[in-house]
């Protein structure tokens, strides 16, 4: 594979963000969920209004993975009070790393992950954390390989289905 470029997402990229968000979420989770719950989540979770608000939130940032001028994956990070749960100023949350299935196994997720680690270092985060669906073994393996350990669980609602997410963290520097 040629060069994959990691690019910060701006408001001008909202349609591409909607498309990659919906497509990768569907590819990742449709087999394990009902069509009704998937449709509801995709319609509500990726509206222009919601994504605009997220892009305008100074504590959140999105990055695209681009190959041959096509968006093939993306990353969403949250710092400080923008984090979905812990809201610890010493932490960075990886809310999303999604890659099109056609590019699985080609190190795209690893490049997005490395971007997250670079941002964590820049903001002097003590640790990085995330939530991952307990049935997404591929993602759990990816994060475990990268040094994350389980520390808690939480509930994620997908339509009318309550699902368990494993919360994982990686300590970066505990002596700061």
Structure notes:
The chain is α+β, with helices and mostly antiparallel strands and 176 residues long. 34% of the residues lie in helices and 34% in strands. The protein contains five helices and seven strands. A seven-stranded mixed beta sheet has the order 1-2-3-4-5-7-6, sandwiched between helices. A hairpin with a 2-residue loop joins strand 6 and strand 7 (161-171). It is globular. The model has no long low-confidence stretch (mean pLDDT 93).
Distance between the termini: 39 Å
Number of helices: 5
Looking across the biggest beta sheet, what order are the strands in?
Answer: 1-2-3-4-5-7-6
Gyration radius from CA atoms, angstroms: 16 Å
Strand content: 25-35%
* Number of E-state strands: 7
* Low-confidence runs of at least 5 consecutive residues: none
Average pLDDT metric = 93
Helix content: 25-40%
Main sheet characteristics? 7 strands, mixed
Shape: globular
Structural class designation: alpha+beta
N-to-C SSE string, H for helix and E for strand: EHHHEEEHEHEE
Briefly summarize what is shown.
The protein has helices spanning 14-29, 35-45, 48-56, 108-122, 137-145; strands at residues 5-8, 60-67, 70-79, 91-99, 127-133, 149-158, 161-171. With 176 residues, it is α+β, with helices and mostly antiparallel strands.
Top keywords for this entry?
176 residues; alpha+beta; 5 helices; 7 strands
Summarize the topology.
Elements: E1 5-8, H1 14-29, H2 35-45, H3 48-56, E2 60-67, E3 70-79, E4 91-99, H4 108-122, E5 127-133, H5 137-145, E6 149-158, E7 161-171
Parallel strand pairs: 4-5
Antiparallel strand pairs: 1-2, 2-3, 3-4, 5-7, 6-7
